[in-house]
Design brief:
The chain is α/β, with parallel strands linked by helices and about 600 residues long. Helix content is about 45%, strand content about 15%.
């Protein structure tokens, strides 16, 4: 709140809490920005609205008025947001540190600290939940002695309100009074907090360490709200340099460490919150997967029907079922409305004997012609079968169902179920990601449609008859998680898998051994490199395992033509080496080089 008000042009020597009385429209504007960014809880503009801090401005007599106004402004914003967006949000009464040492050896006695907190809480809680604050956040506590008095006051003045208490920590993740994170968690729990955690500090790294240590000392919910890094002075202004993407990466780490309340403190803008919200939605989708889609029919639903045998659903299905070696080429949709080049490339590949064309769905979150549209045009104008890549990024489960039923009705029979690249990777990073489900949940949806049932278990009249494929990445660093998720995809109904580009046969073999117990046919991804720069992109941006030997071979190529020839040679080698381990290959056509893809497969 302070950083945002400063950014609105409010001078640093002003009492920001007093703006609740003199400039409520400015405070209201900040609240609305955070609500629009996806915040589920907004804090009142009352961090320093206690008698100790307000006395510096001669406002100590206005404690109750300022806090009541702060709660009222936030309440009005939340109610308007709820009515406009049909989205639930809550008001947290913000109670910050008194800014002085508390206790026998401090500047303020424990009783005086208690009185200061109590007066502030009465103003925040006036009217109760739904009128005043819905909960209280005691934050940036410098010492346990101070936190104890804040908890005492909250339990006395507003026992009906949930209470979150957060300490600030040093570089070693210890409280500023020297207490360890473990001791803090134990004492805050014993004194009556409903949730405990860490905020402010020097950024996400130390807060994460504190949360991990607190988890071992309490069973209460944990809260993690770091600063967006340590402020730096730039042209006379304090700037927080941690990017929204960086904060978003830590939001996921906080949740994995046990936090269920996640946000940000100083320097955390609405853009940071939006990125964090998006990251957590994606994480939720990955973790709930199948569970987020109804696992069985609704109570009054009719039983499903059996889909056609795999061999009767499509050419790809018949080849997979017949254990034939499958060849596919990936054609990326154009960025405009003219797909002449893509249709010509598909026609060449079809005449050369390639079995199917894979069509990605806005890869790397790029804005392109819809994959479904290009699939339909390829099948109708060229006559070769397609595999539609379908992602969860852009559609909720209702839209997914409509798309998939429509795709079946116009003759698309092969689906590759993907979670999808987050929007921040593309040209429109402010686009909103949906992620109602991930690839696992999507497979479950398609499996239901194949049995003639919608997501509620209601009959749709016939089977959609899709062959269902999923992605796999043998070279991902966290291979245990990749294997676990692949097993879940198979359990949900996947019938064959397509790997990311393979450049290291050893990793492919290891992956195949790891999935032996739930093995389905695997199609190996093959990518003909075009240059050293292309290899570096694959390694660094797409996180594809790239052996040093291959990087050296690409680096040795002296001309673009030689780079192309070396890339095709490497791709051919990978195809031949993997042939005995997989049931087919998907060859990419980088930068629309369809002839190169055909050369790799060996049809030229």
């Amino acid at each position: 709140m302070g950083s945002m008000l400063y950014g609105c042009g409010i001078f640093i020597n002003r009492c920001y809490d007093e703006l609740n009385l003199s400039q409520p429209e400015v405070v209201r504007g900040v609240h609305n920005e955070y609500l629009q960014a996806g915040a589920a809880v907004i804090e009142t503009n009352t961090f320093g609205a206690n008698a100790v801090r307000l006395k510096r401005y001669g406002l100590e007599e206005k404690v109750h008025e300022i806090n009541r106004a702060g709660a009222g402004i936030a309440r009005a914003c939340v109610e308007a947001h709820r009515e406009k967006m049909a989205s639930e949000a809550y008001v947290a009464g913000a109670i910050g540190s008194l800014g002085v040492r508390v206790g026998a050896d401090g500047e303020l006695s424990a009783d005086d600290a208690y009185a200061a907190f109590a007066a502030q809480i009465r103003g925040l809680a006036e009217g109760g939940p739904g009128v005043g604050a819905d909960l209280l956040i005691v934050e940036t506590m410098m010492s346990l002695a101070e936190a104890e008095q804040a908890i005492r006051a909250a339990k006395s003045e507003a026992p009906e309100l949930p209470l979150i208490v957060m300490m600030t920590v040093d570089e070693r993740s210890n409280c500023l009074d020297g207490s360890t994170a473990e001791v803090a968690a134990e004492r805050l729990t014993a004194w009556g907090a409903d949730a405990v955690g860490c905020n402010c500090s020097s950024g996400p790294v130390v807060v994460l360490a504190a949360i991990e240590r607190m988890r071992s000392a309490t069973t209460l919910p944990l809260a993690a709200m770091p600063n967006a890094g340590t402020p730096r002075q730039v042209d006379g202004r304090s700037i927080y340099l941690d990017s929204p993407e960086y904060m978003a990466s830590f939001a996921k780490k906080f949740v994995k460490a046990g936090a269920t309340i996640v946000g940000g403190c100083c320097g955390t803008t609405p853009q940071h919150i939006k990125a964090m919200r998006g990251a957590l939605r994606a994480l939720e989708a990955q973790e709930v997967g199948v569970e987020s889609v109804k696992a069985g029919p609704a109570p009054n639903a009719r039983p499903g029907i059996e889909p056609p045998p795999l061999k009767d659903r499509s050419l790809i299905g018949s080849l997979i079922a017949g254990k034939k070696f499958v060849t596919m080429v990936e054609i990326v949709p154009p960025k405009g409305i003219d797909c002449t080049r893509e249709l010509e490339g598909a026609d060449v590949l079809h005449k050369l004997g390639v079995h199917a064309i894979n069509v990605p769905d806005s890869p790397r979150a790029s804005a392109r012609m819809s994959a479904q549209s290009l699939c339909v045009q390829i099948q109708q104008k060229v006559g070769i079968e397609t595999i539609l890549h379908y992602t969860c990024r852009d559609r909720n489960i209702l839209g997914m169902q409509g798309d998939l039923i429509g795709a079946s009705s116009i003759g698309l029979k092969n689906i590759l179920c993907l979670t999808g690249d987050p929007p921040k990777m593309g040209s429109y990073p402010d686009a909103t990601a949906v992620f109602d489900v991930d690839a696992i949940g999507l497979v479950k949806i398609v499996e239901g449609l194949n049995h003639g049932l919608d997501i509620g278990g209601n009959p749709i009249g016939a089977s959609t008859g899709f062959t269902v494929s999923v992605a796999a990445n043998p070279g991902v660093p966290d291979i245990d998680n990749e294997v676990r998720r692949f097993a879940a995809k198979v359990e949900a109904g996947a019938e064959f898998g397509i790997t990311q580009p393979v450049f290291d046969l050893r990793l492919l073999e290891q992956f195949l051994r790891r999935i032996e117990q739930f093995r389905i046919p695997i199609i190996a991804g093959i990518w003909p490199l075009t240059s050293l720069k292309n290899a570096e992109f694959m390694k660094n941006d797409l996180k594809v395992s790239m052996p040093t030997e291959i990087m050296a071979r690409m680096a040795a190529a002296e001309t673009p033509e030689e780079s192309r020839e070396v890339g095709i040679a490497i791709a051919r080698e990978m195809l031949e080496q993997s042939r005995g381990h997989v049931q087919g290959v998907q060859v990419s056509a980088p930068f629309g080089k369809y002839k190169a893809a055909a050369e790799v497969i060996g049809v030229l």
